[in-house]
Amino acid sequence: MQKINDVRDRLIVALDVPTVWDAYRLVSTLGDGVTFYKIGYRLAFAGGLDLARQLVAEGKKVFLDLKLHDIGNTVREGVESLTKLGVTFLTVHAYPQTMRGAVEGRGDSALKLLAVTALTSYDDGDLRDAGYGLAVRDLVRLRAEQARSAGIDGIVCSAAETGIVREVIGPDMVIVTPGIRPSGSAAGDQKRTLTPAEAIRIGADHLVVGRPIIRAADPRAAAGAVMDEIVAAS
Questions:
Q1: Around 101, how many Cα atoms within 13 Å sit in the side-chain half-sphere?
Q2: Residue 69 counted as an annotated binding residue
Q3: What sections of the sequence does the record tag as coiled-coil (predicted)?
């Protein structure tokens, strides 16, 4: 596992809200208890890239979750542009050509690239429907091996596959796990979930939590509860 100096950085709150104003309000509510935020499609396409710049300027860390996938040259050019934002993490899909292009585009910048193996909303049946002949666990293992060979910095995978991924990538690459559901919360559309404590104990470095925090009656208290689980399991 990676050495993380500030335990607060282990929690990444997903800003899965419709507007930049909603995001700013949530960040203000969460205060200093949260240091790391994820910006995905919805917010990125509604002014979220400017928000990313602002959060970085304010000393926050940003995970830009765009899951890039295209021909290698196009990915390379896109990543080159995104290095200027100063974000910490950027996701790409774990296809070999895509990952190689992303690594070229990152160059010697501080941006860390994360490869998405299999979405946490997928199960074996979903993969069969998409034409894959592999079970989720086998596809995750293959993608993790390819990511390591391509020079990717870390893996995004379900907490349920964290143990497999750690075996493949060793101690030096980052593991980020979405689909985290605190004890007692609903799974929603995620099919492969674990609690924060469970995910930390099996080797996750960073946990992405969205709805259980942002839809809570008291988001700050909900984030604090997740952090307490992380600290207890660390």
A1: 21
A2: yes
A3: none
HEC secondary structure over the chain: CCCCCCHHHHEEEECCCCCHHHHHHHHHHHHHHCCEEEECHHHHHHHHHHHHHHHHHCCCEEEEEEEECCCHHHHHHHHHHHHHHCCCEEEEECCHHHHHHHHHHHCCCCCEEEEECCCCCCCHHHHHHCCCCCCHHHHHHHHHHHHHHHCCCEEECCHHHHHHHHHHHCCCCEEEECCECCCCCCCCCCCCCECHHHHHHCCCCEEEECHHHHCCCCHHHHHHHHHHHHHHHC
What pTM, to 2 d.p., does this model score?
0.91
pLDDT tens digits for 124-136? 898 889 888 888 8
Consult the annotation and say whether 211 binds a ligand: yes
Check whether 124 is labelled as a binding-site residue.
no
Is residue 112 annotated as a catalytic residue, yes or no? Answer: no
What is the share, in percent, of the chain residues with pLDDT greater than 90? 70
- With 80 as the cut, is the pLDDT of residue 181 above it? no
Domain 7-233 matching CATH 3.10.20.310: the answer reads no
**Predicted pLDDT of residue 127:** 82
User: How is the chain split into domains, by residue range?
Assistant: 7-233
- Orientation angle between helical segments 72-82 and 96-106, nearest 10 degrees: 40
Tell me whether residue 181 is annotated as binding: yes
Q: Which of 79-88, 113-122, 139-148 has the lowest mean pLDDT?
A: 113-122
